[in-house]
Amino acid sequence: MDTDGGKSDAFTLRVIFRGEAGDGILNAGDMLMRSAAALGFSAAVHKSFPPTIRGGACSALVTVSGEELSAPVSSAADFVFLLDKSTLFVHGDGGTYRGADGCANTGSSVNANNGDNANGRIGGIKSFALNFGLCPHINIHPQLKSSFALGVASQILGVPERLILNLITEKLRKKNLTEENEDAFRKGHESAAESIIPAIGASHKHAGRLSPPMPMPGNRVVLDGNTAVALGAISAGCRIYASYPITPATPIGERMAQYLHSFGGFAYQAEDEISAIGVTAGAWYSGVPAMTATSGPGLSLMQEFLGYCSMTETPAVVVDVQRAGPSTGMPTMHSQDDLMAAAFGGHGEDQRIVLAAASIEECFYLTIEAFDMAQRFRCPVILLSDSALGNLRATCRRPDPALGLDGMPKIAAESAFDIAGCGDEPPQPPHPAGPDDARPRRITGLEHDEHCMPSNSAENRVRQQYRRFSKMDKIELDYSHMQTIDADGVTLRTPRSEFAKKFNIGNGDEDNDAGPPADLCVVSWGLSSAMTRFAVAALRKRGLKIACLYPRLLFPFISGHYLKLLEFCPRIAVVESNYTGQLASMIRMYTGINTIPVKKYCGDPFTPEEIEAELYNIIQMENFILDISEHEAGGDGEVPHE
Amino acid sequence: MSNRPHERYSNGRKPSWCSGCSYFTVLSALTECFDERDIAPEGVNVISGIGCSSRLPLFLNCLGMHTLHGRPLPAAIGARLARPDIPVVVATGDGDLLSIGAAHFVHAARKNFDITVICFDNRMYAMTKNQASPTSPVGYKGSLTPYGKLSAPLNIAELAIGSGASMVCRACAYDKAHTKKMIGAALDHRGFSLVEVIAPCRTFNGQQREILERMDDLQDRGHEVDNRESAMREAARVYDSDNNPKAVIPIGVIWKSGGMICFDDQVGRVLDENTRKHSSVDEILDDLKPGRGW
Ligand SMILES: Cc1ncc(C[n+]2csc(CCOP(=O)(O)OP(=O)(O)O)c2C)c(N)n1
Ligand code: SF4
Q: What is the pLDDT of residues B164-210, one digit of tens each?
């Protein structure tokens, strides 16, 4: 999918380090990624690791490209460093690399197993007999394998030794492990020059790929999803952060504890997640913007307080870095299975907003939006991220706290009271009321009247429920920018609607744009949607017409956007990482549209290659069905009624 | 100080408690304490959970959060962190504080937050119509334990001292003057203070004024409040685990630590130490430019 024109800007290089937890795999990936970034390249590292401190398969995929960053999750790889036998066994069936068509021809593998897999194939990736066996004079302690591999990689790719040595020194100084790791790195570096470069050929397309360096763009930073959330929160004015440790959300708390105190805020470690959300609510009630971050099990514990915030109209911001559930599930693995819990998890009928970030930059901007929306609508806002996105570290455009999502101007927060008040009804507490403020000062989770006195009256109940729900109607009007429609090159099958005009979709004929329908509509959210974008770009290159909707505001559910997709094509595929098709279910629930599920639930995120193959198959299959039905219907070309 | 403290802090609604409920005494003792200290209604945050006792903030015109069953302390901690200038009083029941909210109690006490907790100990669940609570005596016949409670009561004072509370008092609602003295002392204390107020439920267990005769005021006996060993010994005099209706009930200030530093003060120190390490998010982003190391 990547154009690969030799040493041009538009190259994609992918290196995988794979081994056992404790082998230093993640550090190696991080160091190679950071070195490439320091040399002016776009780079990313996608990590996958077990919940154990030692043992269990662990991998880091480093992606390096020129100007535009290629997909940071992929089925393809150019070099695979397998540092341990058991992982080879575990992933011997191909693991993540299933369907990596291009790899066998272009890829090579440096196999650290003593030749066991020499000249074999690892999940479609041809493995060269480049292993420690080729460097018999080298005796490496198993714990130093990753530094050795890093040395090999840096030699092949032309990364200056100094860059990585500095990173090793900085990272391992505290552990007093600098010397032996530097030594292992140098050995790898030397032996690669002696035996590996000659074996793969100095003319290999990636030999010396990272030299010379690229000019460094001025507006670039290295961020991971979790750090982006923390910085977004501080930018949005968050001054109290409360949390309980949980993988994979803990790094958000670590960042808050590192930075927040400089801003006069405080990062508090609570005794459990119920306490963390309670502290958050108490702080907002007292007029200080606050946030908590957690993962699935913590979100379950927070449900009662989320309802409390809705009922008392207390803002709250909760970040759920999803991991594979239910129960303790797979604590480090990617999943998008908390959408339903985020939207509908509490008892009773409450007001909530659910956002989902697809990229590191969105982690930043959507956190800011979450704070704004929580204040405007006086209800909890849950931002969904996931373990892969939270741990994904990459070069990205420097986020600008002054801007909103996609560089849009921010929605002014002044109107908060108008909205919460909704029509003639006065706004409700909470607020830190002064002595002259006539509004009631207390809040209660009991149904209550405008004086905040508990009330069971039918009249009051109807009025309050209606008021609390009606204020949410403003979301549809003011937040359509949260949904991106990408219908590049797609014509409409119906006359151009107001909607199509608004999103500038169609071929320019104002009144009648009707043409052949798109081959497929695709909906995807969260990290899967980022991968879907790459897949769709590839399919479009193959001549297919695809219209996409990437919602970032998932709840309240805005039916209009999904219904309008039908203007392009009646077939809608929904790509998401869960078993039950949670967004697909919501689409059916709110619009009645039956979609075609594209699901993955093994714990690894979708790769663009997988999505491309799945979508392509759907189009082929649907066209086949269409052909048959046309044939049966006498070939009048009508689109079947869905 | 006003002539009518109840009016100064009332929101005009009549408390919804049963007439003759011992909780009324605690409410008026509390508002009198506020008034004596000239704490403005908007200058104090009264936070509660769920239960008859937890209804208290709904009868006041103070800042107040009527939260969830068992969860007043997390909200109280959030309020303390957000507004260190506003004192926080938690009104809670024995079920709210020690059953569903026990974990929060242990940790708020251990961390020694500057919060005054008033536990209305009616030794049963009243709001849900008479079930055994952690502090009910052995054999208590609640609606869910008609065969009689099988386990020993939890000793609040012992748990509080053991958890790390820096002040622990016990009072009985039938003695308003003493209750007020204890609440006042707790309000004046910097750190986590617990006032266990023995306050029987009139509706389910009747008036029990006779228990007043069993009260043994520790302050009359020259009890050393800052001696942890004797505090633990007094706290351990469980007044009726043996169901002895004659057992003596120690009341008064049981424990008051001289030198435990409260969480709130340490937050100030952490902030002082860290202020201006980074002055803006932009400055942090500068540190995250490629090539800047880890
Ligand atoms: C999560 C949850 N579980 C149960 C209840 C029901 N409930 C309401 S009040 C209460 C007990 C209150 O007892 P206590 O705290 O001792 O206060 P009291 O009514 O005796 O003053 C219970 C169990 C609830 N509101 N929420
Ligand atoms: S039920 Fe008992 S505790 Fe509750 S208000 Fe009535 S007398 Fe007081």
A: 999 999 999 999 999 999 999 999 999 999 999 999 999 999 999 99
Contacts (Cβ under 8 Å, ≥6 apart) of A617: none
Please state, rounded to an integer, the average pLDDT across all residues of chain A: 82
- Are B74 and A398 an interchain contact pair (Cβ–Cβ within 8 Å)? no
Q: Two tokens at B252?
A: 């008064």
Contacts B45 to A, Cβ<8 Å? 286
Q: Distance between CA A281 and CA A288 in Å, rounded?
A: 10
Ligand 1 atom index nearest CA of B93: 15
According to the CATH classification, is domain A221-416 in 3.40.50.970?
yes
CB atoms under 10 Å from CB of A541, counted, come to 10
How much of chain B is helix, strand and coil, in % rounded to 5? 40, 15, 40
**Under an 8 A CB cutoff, do A278 and B13 touch?**
no
- pTM, two decimals, is 0.92
Q: What's the number of CA atoms in the CB half-sphere (13 Å) around residue A563? A: 10
pLDDT of residue A577 exceeding 70, the answer is: yes
Mutation test residue for ligand 1: of B69, B98, B154, the one with most atoms within 8 Å of CB: B69
Q: Specify which residues A546 forms β-bridges with.
A: A520
DSSP three-state, residue A329: coil
Question: CA dihedral in degrees (A482, A486, A492, A494; nearest 10)?
Answer: -10
Do A221-416 and A482-616 show the same overall fold? yes
Ligand 1: residue whose CA is nearest its atom 7:
B128
A25-29, A360-364, A410-414, A557-561: least confidently modelled range = A410-414
Just give the CATH number of A482-616.
3.40.50.920
CA of B98 to the centre of ligand 2 (A): 18
Q: Is A85 helix (H, G, I), strand (E, B) or coil?
A: helix
Q: Does the beta carbon of B230 sit less than 6 angstroms from any atom of ligand 2?
A: no
**Token digits of residue A584:** 């697909």
B210 and B119 in a common domain: yes
Q: Does A418 touch chain B (CB under 8 A)?
A: no
Q: Which long-range contacts (CB under 8 A, 24 or more apart) does B262-265 make?
A: B262/B112, B262/B113, B262/B114, B262/B166, B262/B190, B262/B191, B262/B192, B263/B111, B263/B112, B263/B113, B263/B114, B264/B80, B264/B84, B264/B113, B264/B114, B265/B114, B265/B190
Provide the domain count of chain B. Answer: 2
